[in-house]
Amino acid sequence: RVLFRSLLPIFLEEADTLVPDTSAQLRAWIAAPNEAATRDALRRNLHTIKGSARMVGAMRLGELTHVMESRVIAVIEGHLAASGEVFGTLEAQLDRLADAVERLKHGDLSPIVEEAPAPLEAPVEPVLGQAPAATAADPLAAAQPVMRDSNALTLRVRADWVDRMVNQAGEVAIARSRIESEVFAFKRHVNELSEALVRLRGHIREVEIQAESQMQATFQAHGVAEQFDPLEFDRFTRFQEVTRFLAESVNDISTVQHILLARLGEADAALIQQTRLNRELQQDMLRVRMVPLNSVAERLYRTVRQTARDVEKRAQFDIQGGELEIDRSVLEKVTAPLEHLLRNALAHGIESPEARRAAGKTEFGEIVLSARQSGNEMMLTVKDDGAGLNYARIREKAEANGLLLPGAEPTETLLAQMIFAAGFSTAESVSQVAGRGVGMDVVKSEISALGGRIDIASTPGAGTSFNIYLPLTLAMTQAVMVQAARHDYALPTPLVQQVLELKPVELERAMVAGEVEWRGARYPFSYLPHLLGDTEAVHEVQRYNPVVLLQSGTSLAAVLVDVIEGTREIVVKNIGPQMARITGVVGATVRGDGRVMLILNPVPLALRWASLSRTAVERSAPAEAAELSAALQPPMVLVVDDSLTVRKITTRLLNREGFRVDSAKDGVDALEKMHDLIPDVVLLDVEMPRMDGFELARVMRSDERLKSVPIIMITSRTADKHRSHAMEIGVNVYLGKPYQEQQLLDAIAEQLGQEVPLPA
Asked: By CB neighbour count within 10 A (0-12 exposed, 13-18 middle, 19+ buried), where does 367 fall?
């Protein structure tokens, strides 16, 4: 027993390589029955497995391998012909061999007996949604080679250690993101300091000029002063001295500012280098977790063989692109859906041999699993040459289940999506393989939980193709960062087709139509918070309103957001089983400041939103619905003042009171702002460069678009002649600086036609 416990791990490690290799050699021999090299290699592998199994005490396993070896030797010696019956027997025995090895990995010691060999138990078919036996003890879950170069040494390490190091690399990336945000904020503040220094230097220069012009030259009669001209011997007052001190202080601050800029540049360069090194480390760590698709090939071949025997059909299975490397965690979670698609292809797609002969097809059906990489996505395609989807049967079942209204004319794309509904099945009778209506809905939910999507393409009589799009890794991804209703979200970049910036008129047109057209395609239009359940959220109309065009498979959606912050590389975190099944949520990430941000796929949410019944107003009058949505917008106030301090203080006050606020530094800037977006109220200063307040008021009152916009003039010029001139040109309210906050709010409320609040 002690010897067995010490030798069994060695045998299982050897079997991880020998069993898949034996299966590949058997398939190669079946493809070329006269090829002696593959046949001899198969015999040698079986002989090695037999000896190793008997050494650890797995006598039944050794006997099974001995029987297989004897059958191969009989073919070599000419006692048996290399027929389909012999190959079928060898495949069945190989399945039993692989199943026995898997049971040994799970601690089932039934193959470890000393008694006479007996038939092994039939392998239990894995159930989708439940971890199969091969998943938990899969060799790729136990250890991975760090280097795959055939000439390099390899090291086997525990998978959980690799996962832990990848997570730690992700935490380093999050910490680096926080440093980047701090450096960015520091850079912004230094730039503001530079601008303030430029303004301060200009003001000091004006003060110096004024001081020099007022300098009084006095003639000193005592000493040798009579030798100097009065213009050559000036007397400096305390005022001139203070101005010189101020100028020197500004120069000192400027020196410090230049030092800060230089140090900031060095810190930025070091951060860029650290970012590059960190990205290389992450990529290398992720490469350790990458395994080829062929590592689960044996499981998939066994699934096809067992299912074909169960449904009494014949099929050939082939894997194309099996060398494509995939993240281990992605491969583990997608294997069960792939197995179900293969079983589904045999149960529903591939016809019986008689039906195929009658249709002019070969007796053996063909099922192909192909894999290829597209950007940072992987596409897996399960294709068969069977009868294709029975759209008439699907429609009949959908109407019976209440998924379709009688008399509706759905498209083939919509009918194809019906097979993903829970409890949906077109099988005539319930068997161990099909008819329960459980499976395809789980397949879609499993793939969605991985952040992927699935499409269907079917041709009657020619077959069906399932296209699965998955991320190459679940650890890192590129995402577009957006903000809506003051909440931050991340959208995976593979979903984003285009970002549009709509003017207010175009936005209103999209709201009325309920869709956005781009390059001939129509995208259903919706506001992101509405898709997430916040139906009371209202988008703040801006000069340019960002709309993200998304595509998931064949489904399209146009999602309105408030702000787009750009594209970033984010670390994907596990969101747990509670949220993993929520539609539209594909993961979460952590910002540099520690806040958790959801990673969304809004396309299924947008499709569900578009299919919901609209209110009576929306059904009867879309334009009225758009006007109602516009009426819910907070009032827009434009603050026009050349003082940065006044603009900031007023903007902060109005934001606190719930207004939408924009600002302009003079009249010309204000006219540019009002070219696309008409404010509800304008707060206007008088003395400004380029165009003063009086000129701007006259221009607004002569413009058909702007003449009805209320103008509240706020200025330090409180003389009656200024007030009278302002009223003559059409100013509604004239206030003096400094203003009382409540007085300003009352004036704005009065101009908006609202009830004037009482002072506190």
From this structure: buried
